[in-house]
Amino acid sequence: MEYTEQVMDHFMNPRNMGEMADPSGVGTVGNAKCGDIMRIYIKVENDVITDVKFKTFGCGAAIATSSKATEIVKGMTLEEAEKVTNKMVMEALGGLPPIKVHCSVLAEEALHAAIQDYRERLEKGLPPVTEPDDADVKYV
Amino acid sequence: MKVYMDNGATTRVTEPVMAAMQPYFCEVFGNPSSFHTAGRESRRAVEAARAQVAKAIGAEPREIYFTGCGTEADNWAIRGTAYANVKKGKHIITTNFEHHAVLHTCAQLEKEGFEVTYLPVDEYGLITPEQLEAAIRPDTVLVTVMTANNEIGTLEPIPELAAVAKKHGVLFHTDAVQAIGHVKIDVHAQNIDMLSMSGHKFHAPKGIGALYIRQGVRIQPLMQGGAQERGQRPGTENLAGIVGLGKAIELATADIDAKAAGMRAIRDHMIDRILKEIPYARLNGHPTKRMCGNVNVSFQFIEGEGMLIHLDMKGIAASSGSACTSGSLDPSHVLLAIGLPHEIAHGSLRLSLCEENTMAEADYVVDSLVEIVARLRAMSPLYDDFLASQKN
Q1: What was the ipTM of the complex prediction?
Q2: For residue A139, what is the DSSP state?
């Protein structure tokens, strides 16, 4: 199994990695049991994603697709960002080994979950996110 | 710095082994079964290697059968014993953390109507003679337990287990693929009836293995063909490979105590430093009943493949039991067998030494790990959540 140069670049030098102080929306998907958890934070102003950050627990492909996905959606309108698919992220990375395709699905899901979270907050008039969701993880 | 610490996966062919094999490609090439001088010369080389292998494990030359690899030896020992003993019974005992060469062979036999008991190992990967004794039935025909676990390095109490099998008149096989050259083995003194080995784990080339079968034990051959290996394993001998196996096992078992002590010192130094310098790390396997060259640790909140890539970028070859490196969604069955939760198993790392690794390499690897683990944790939402939970 070999990763493309783009995947290796995004893994070694991840873009937009980190947390966000006052995100407009947060999406966390995956579970630790399967070895992949992705969390994407977005800042939205006038329906445009002005900032995006990610944190990922997972393999090289999971980290690289998170990084690439954030790079792609930064500056997009929500409508545009909602149309971003795992396939687009994968292609932008020059492809993934077949057994890693599911990792890119997670990036799409995390992004869409963050947008969904933002929209729900907007509708329900909820306060901005302060604490990340608790992940269901056991520590030993 | 380039550091190869994946000797549990495979080892390099060392120069003396290569030199021993060299003449057996272009110069000495006769078919060992041929009558002429060229054939007889090859035959002598095969028999000399057989004697070297036998001597290294305390067997007689006629008890050694060359195979294509360790997996073939395991398959042959287990299936061959099962098929040869159907009149006595169809029950086999093994453990739940054997190599797949054993586990998948047993699973196949189950499909064919045999019964298999998988003894559960404890948190260190050990089983006890009492556990084995309780599992033996009148129709048990074979016990197969690995000498040393390939992932976490746990050393099973083989002489004690074999004694239990012998007491009940049951054949005892051990997969010693990881153990040769690291652990002292004397098949006769330790009541071992069959033992599998694989050359490339101790500096012989890939593609050559052997099965020791105690004299008087009859198992069915898996292949039909010519009279090679006394008709038990037909197929023209891998002449150069066999010569390499003989030389390699002679070197691997000479001075084994000193070599093991050297590896043990490096192993313990690495384990000590890792547990001291990296928080939320745990040692997998037993602290002392483990292979002299095996370090297996889990780091919480991170995933193994990321570690491997970073290590690789630093010139370090290692392996992991994470799902991502196993090609499935589940982490290693060995780590699950010792009771690790999935998320901890995903963050496992195996560093496997050979006698050529140095203390300087060990320090370089640990220094690199400290940095890599911190870097991956900084990216991990699990680590964030953990830190947040600590504050509350």
Answers
A1: 0.88
A2: -
The whole-angstrom separation of Cα B94 and Cα B120 is 9
Answer for the pair A132, A39: CB distance below 8 angstroms, yes or no.
Answer: yes
Show residues of chain B in contact with A60, CB under 8 Å. 305-306, 309, 324
Q: Which of B310, B293, B321 is nearest to B378 (CA)?
A: B310
Query: Which residues are CB-contacts of B69 (< 8 A; sequence separation ≥ 6)?
Result: B198, B206, B207, B208, B209
Long-range CB pairs of B306-310, under 8 A, 24+ apart, other chains included:
B306/A11, B306/A58, B306/A59, B306/A60, B306/A63, B306/B376, B307/B347, B307/B349, B307/B369, B307/B372, B307/B373, B307/B376, B308/B349, B309/A3, B309/A8, B309/A11, B309/A12, B309/A60, B310/B368, B310/B372, B310/B375, B310/B376
Name the interface residues of B facing A (CB cutoff 8 Å). Answer: 280, 282, 300-306, 309, 313, 322-324, 327, 329, 331, 340-344, 346, 378-386, 388-389
Residue A99 exposed, middle or buried by CB count within 10 Å (0-12, 13-18, 19+): middle
- Which residues lie across from B296 on neighbouring strands? B350
Dump pLDDT digits (tens) for B251-310: 999 999 999 999 999 999 999 999 999 999 999 999 999 999 999 999 999 999 999 999
Residue A106 contacts B where some CB pair is shorter than 8 Å? no
The answer to whether B303 contacts A8, with C-beta atoms less than 8 Å apart, is no
pTM of the model: 0.93
